TrEMBL record:
SMART domains: cNMP. Keywords: Activator. Residues 11-57 form the Cyclic nucleotide-binding domain. The lineage of its organism: Bacteria, Bacillati, Bacillota, Bacilli, Bacillales. This is Crp/Fnr family transcriptional regulator. It holds the Pfam family cNMP_binding. CDD domains: CAP_ED. InterPro entries: cNMP-bd_dom (IPR000595), cNMP-bd_dom_sf (IPR018490), RmlC-like_jellyroll (IPR014710).
Amino acid sequence: MKSVLMKYMTKYTSLNEEEQRRIIDELTIKEYKKGTILHRQGDVPKKCYFVLKGCIRQYAIDEMGKEVTSNFYTEEQAITIFNHDKLDKLSSYTYTCLEDSILVVGDLDTEEKMYNQYNQLEAMTRKMMEEIFGQVQDDFAAFIGSTPEERYKSLKMKRPHLINRVPQHQLASYLGMTPESLSRIKKRVHKEIN
């Protein structure tokens, strides 16, 4: 698992191997069981995460009481909870483990201490966030401009592992359709391929 973290540090920093090992030794890596809620909608976030193994679902409960899935985080993805612009600092989302998971857990209260101790860490985090933000923008633009079938085909091409790892009703919510529509689209796409 530590090799995954070293890969990221090598990609985003010029820290030598010894410095990377010291940082990794200070990180908290935790195992979570399937069904564990990492953070609830309406709470003030205190942690951030990096997925080493597992699948985490991000969702919100809307005014009608319906769960709306907005993302799934899998191996080598960072989970950041942006709420700095909100006056009350409350999170708009719940994050829950869909599988047994192993996560790097960052404490937002001690983040500054780590940045001061390892100045390249802040630059690394910024670069990762810029990359994530750019991808989110691209994904959102593609989502808005596509049909439900195009969304499914895009998911099948970009993140095929989700199709069998995630409950279909949650996958349908993520794609902005009903489970019945997703089932019909999957059958149609399967026929096109065969």
